[in-house]
Request: fold
Amino acid sequence: MSEQSTPQTSVALESTTPQYAELVPYAAVPEGDSAPGIHPTPGPRPQRLHWTGRRLDGEPVLLDETPDVKEEAGYERQFKGRRLIGLDVARGLALIGMVAVHTIPAWNPITETRSIAWIAAAGNASALFALLAGVGMALMTRGPRHEHGSSLRSQRFKIAIRALLLYGIGILVTTFFVTPVYNILPYYAVMFLLLLPFLGMRKRQLAVWALGLAITMPFVIHLFRYFQPFDVHNEFLLGDFFLAPMAIATSLFFTGTYPAATWIVYLLVGLMIGRLALDRLAIQVSLLGYGALLGIMGHSMSYLSIWFFGGWERMLYSAPEVTVREVLWMIRRGADYQELPATSLAWLTVASPHTNTFFALVQTTGNAMMALGACLLLCRIIPKYLGVLAFLGSMTLTLYTAHLIFLTSYLQEEMPYLSLTLQLIVGTAFVYLWSRFFRQGPLEWVVAKVSGFPPQLLQARQRIDTSASRRRRARTRTSRKHHTGLYTTPGAPAGAVEPAAPTKRRRTRK
Reply:
């Protein structure tokens, strides 16, 4: 009876809804969803219509068929092996932006306007670099986790060692080469250490933390600048950490050019983005669209706050020594390697580069997301033409360090455009030749080897402890069986039990 009820039900359903008969449903009806009086039969269940609530006419609809990711346009072209080309292209774009900002002057004295490099890359290139660092952390910690999260602990240990190495490289470069720009590597090291507690969080928790820090930390930085408890250090030397530790820590966290208290937001957003399926077309389009929306929102909120809600007047009258030209300079060019005045909270409405305000964080985060989404989408169409950016993005640590050393020649002050062209050509040629013999750049290889060695020892120690505990448990089980008399002697008939060993009496002295 049950075998005949199933086809009758399907025929009746198709006859009542003939307009849906040719559509391919998403999946079969789950068990326990049969009509009253009909029992399930063995084998695959018949497919039928399913109500999803998408139509207002009261008719049932079919669920959409699951799209195949590999059938999306340009899916195979965006990979090089198992590596997404778009991530390397985005890193290369961020590196070129930072090099251009450091090389080309920010202000054109002839036209009295900002340069194109400053408008496009100031604050945005370094924000994209920090966001991609968070994406890399997510990809690094995406692997399988063992018992009690041992894999996550080893990854945290590895990231902590990398942070110390980055800090050491940044300090050595700043100490032995007097660079005319501020080095971001020590700040990155602190950001990596601050990111360790967030590696095991979910995407919603990361979003809440990122929004909370973006709102609160600009006020904390404003208070530190207002009271100014320690001197601001932007050039970190080898002995400064021992001579003025509190001033160095305050600069790294709050008052420096790239304070970790606010720049950790970029890494948290990148960590959240790295948990997504970045090879999906829908995710890439969403990054482009939502990034553009965030960038417009940050700029619009800052513009309205300054020019329509009294921010301009409060900034102008906050201090008698502040002139109209200086206020306009701060609004247009941002901090420009200077600190924003802390005389009024109205200065927190500025969204210019390196101001570390809430509006600046929203704008630069949106621009970074938009750039990442655009790079991922372009790699579906023209990945071969973006090979130069991908080459540069595969060795960002080595090339950025070489860029800092090159700036000590001060050639960019006399011939800025020639200096930029020379750095790009030499860097591309070096990466191309190096990659033909080695998989990683020189500094990348050193950091990977040194940071990977202690976690390997830790994993080996854990394996030894696990095997030792297994042997102890095996000996315990064997001793229990001997004690209860479960073992039989060899050659004894079935059912015969080995007698327990006689106990020895302890002799006592009388």
